[in-house]
């Protein structure tokens, strides 16, 4: 009977997963929202079609294995070499941020809900995890800036590990009354086991894949076997250390240059979707309405305080002195959903607490599930709107050619806050770009698959900047004919002036560095002040901004509080252009050209386009 029930569960999960993915594409919302709803509806509380409790101890094993693979996959998408600029902020989030969240969540649940202090501490430890199971689908769908998305993903991967160890520690303190020395040894031992096993797995697998000649199918099988083996051995040596081992294992594989990395990502992506569906549906089906109702409005109050007070407090405190601006910090503060790790561990702890005759186990489950449901729904439904409101969804720009011109251009776009990907065939140039924190795809830009891998299908602009005119022309043609780019979305560098007409004949905006340099020098001789605006250099910008802020439309330029180091040059309205002066009244959809030193031009852009 049990084997038949397991097959029934597997079939039900597959069907509900397909339905959830279809609804996700239809309504353009994260699939986890629909998985959560399906699990609750199919569970004992509504239709009674699915009862995970019948699985017994098998449920814990299933959830543990799924979480291990999901955390490994999260780490696999992290390349430490390309995110050095954000490591400081992430490390603070998983240390300072975790401590702030733990202390505040413990106090709020104890003071507001009135649960025992020991249970409140367990709850505080559980909700420190933001969870890659929810964050990764959200940031990939919302497409926020690379810096923000990688911060959230890396925080989620590492936070899961920190949450598991901290929650296990607090639980052991509650049920076993550990002393001060035992607490320190508990943390240190499990952290060391996780770090060592994860590092060992990453080192051995990356070395083997770099040297062995095996089929793609064997690579997938070997990697999955390695993940399970490292997790099992780590858990055997130190309970609750396996998640940290998976995070480290995944990050090492994501950072290494193994030849089969893309194969692994595609395989793990499919596998993770199945496992996400399985655990979210099973855990949602375990929800008991009486546990939620027992917490009531007081529990909802705690959750909203966690979202709108504790999370921003931990983010802003952790990111003092980092490169993130206020809007980026606000978006990171909003995206703090709790996922499967708190829900699964809370259920496991509740069962143990009830067996030990401790009070508060059901309140713990109810409060954790309430936190998961509200944070997942809020994040899933509102993240895109919050990102648009805060202006953290940048343009996607694909640059072909990572030489001197492409590198400088990419750095300027990154500084402006745009999402940039560079396609480059030279290993040396790729390494140089990655050291600057720029995303790079190594390969031949004339290959359509390489362009797809670099994200040309989501790009708003394509810039062909290689030193080979044939390559630049072909890339522009592919962008126009294969991917439907318009003339104003493609820009090309022409190295040989004689080839300019070939680009112009195809209506491709192109410029010759030699001709442009000669024109600038010509105008600077005898007229040094006319082109002084071109000397803004690395210290400033010349930007075109569309007026979309209703508070600006209808006002004259002199009424605006513009930075001293900025200057409005021209206003384009339809087919007309006006020299900017103080009395000119700006209208909605005007395109304004502004020059500014430092961040002054960006400040004006934020004002006009808010």
From TrEMBL:
It is a multi-pass membrane protein. Keywords: Antiport, Cell membrane, Ion transport, Membrane, NAD, Potassium, Potassium transport, Transmembrane, Transmembrane helix, Transport. One of its GO terms (cellular component) is plasma membrane. One of its GO terms (biological process) is proton transmembrane transport. It comes from the Archaea. Residues 394-515 form the RCK N-terminal domain. InterPro entries: Cation/H_exchanger_TM, K_uptake_TrkA, Na+/solute_symporter_sf, NAD(P)-bd_dom_sf, RCK_C, RCK_C_sf, RCK_N. The chain crosses the membrane at residues 58-78, 90-113, 119-140, 161-181, 187-209, 221-251, 271-289, 296-324, 330-351, 363-383. Pfam families: Na_H_Exchanger (PF00999), TrkA_C (PF02080), TrkA_N (PF02254). It is found in: Cell membrane. One of its GO terms (molecular function) is antiporter activity. The keyword NAD applies. Residues 528-610 form the RCK C-terminal domain. Part of a potassium transport system. This is Cation:proton antiporter. It comes from Methanococcoides seepicolus.
């Amino acid at each position: 009977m049990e084997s038949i029930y397991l097959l029934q569960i597997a079939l039900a999960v597959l069907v509900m997963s397909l339905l959830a993915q279809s609804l996700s594409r239809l309504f353009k919302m994260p699939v986890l929202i629909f998985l959560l709803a399906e699990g609750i509806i199919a569970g004992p509380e509504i239709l009674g079609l699915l009862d995970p409790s019948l699985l017994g101890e098998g449920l814990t094993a299933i959830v543990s294995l799924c979480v291990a693979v999901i955390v490994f996959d999260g780490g696999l998408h992290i390349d430490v070499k390309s995110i050095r600029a954000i490591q400081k902020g992430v490390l603070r989030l998983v240390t300072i941020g975790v401590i702030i969240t733990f202390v505040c969540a413990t106090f709020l649940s104890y003071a507001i809900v009135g649960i025992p202090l020991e249970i409140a501490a367990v709850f505080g430890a559980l909700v420190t995890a933001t969870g890659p199971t929810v964050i990764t689908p959200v940031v990939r769908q919302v497409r926020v800036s690379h810096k923000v998305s990688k911060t959230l993903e890396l925080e989620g991967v590492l936070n899961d590990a920190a949450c598991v160890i901290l929650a296990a520690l607090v639980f052991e303190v509650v049920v076993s009354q550990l002393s001060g020395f035992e607490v320190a040894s508990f943390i240190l031992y499990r952290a060391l086991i996780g770090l060592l096993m994860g590092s060992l797995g990453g080192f051995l697998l990356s070395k083997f894949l770099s040297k062995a000649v095996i089929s793609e199918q064997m690579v997938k099988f070997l990697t999955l076997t390695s993940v399970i083996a490292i997790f099992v051995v780590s858990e055997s040596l130190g309970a609750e250390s396996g998640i940290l081992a998976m995070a480290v294992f995944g990050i090492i594989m994501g950072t290494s240059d193994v030849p089969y990395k893309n194969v692994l990502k595609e395989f793990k992506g499919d596998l993770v979707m199945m496992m996400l569906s399985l655990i979210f549906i099973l855990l949602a089906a375990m929800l008991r309405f009486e546990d939620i109702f027992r917490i009531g409005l007081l529990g909802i109050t705690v959750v909203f305080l966690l979202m709108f007070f504790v999370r921003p407090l931990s983010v802003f405190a952790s990111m003092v002195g980092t490169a993130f601006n206020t809007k980026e910090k606000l978006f990171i503060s909003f995206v703090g959903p709790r996922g499967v790790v708190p829900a699964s561990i809370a259920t496991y702890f509740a069962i143990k607490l009830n067996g030990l005759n401790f009070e508060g186990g059901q309140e713990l489950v109810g409060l954790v599930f309430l936190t998961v449901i509200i944070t997942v729904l809020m994040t899933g439904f509102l993240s895109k709107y919050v990102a648009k409101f805060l202006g953290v969804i940048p343009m996607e720009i694909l640059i072909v050619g990572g030489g001197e011109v492409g590198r400088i251009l990419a750095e300027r776009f990154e500084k402006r806050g745009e999402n940039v990907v560079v396609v480059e065939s030279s290993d040396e140039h790729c390494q140089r770009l990655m050291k600057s924190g720029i995303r790079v795809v190594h390969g031949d830009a004339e290959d359509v698959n390489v362009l797809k891998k670099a994200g040309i299908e989501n790009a708003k602009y394509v810039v062909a900047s290689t030193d080979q005119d044939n390559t630049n022309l072909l890339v522009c043609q592919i962008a126009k004919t294969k991917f439907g780019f318009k003339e104003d979305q493609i820009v090309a560098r022409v190295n040989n002036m004689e080839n300019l007409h070939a680009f112009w004949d195809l209506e491709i905006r192109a410029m010759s560095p030699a001709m442009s340099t000669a024109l600038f020098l010509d105008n600077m001789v005898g007229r040094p002040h006319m082109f002084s605006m071109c000397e803004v250099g690395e210290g400033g910008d010349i930007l075109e901004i569309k007026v979309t802020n209703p508070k600006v439309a209808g006002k004259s330029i002199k009424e605006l509080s513009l930075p001293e180091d900025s200057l409005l040059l021209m206003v384009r309205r339809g087919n007309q252009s006006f020299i900017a002066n103080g009395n000119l009244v700006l209208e909605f959809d005007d395109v304004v050209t502004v020059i500014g030193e430092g961040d002054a031009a960006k400040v004006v852009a934020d004002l006009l386009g808010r």
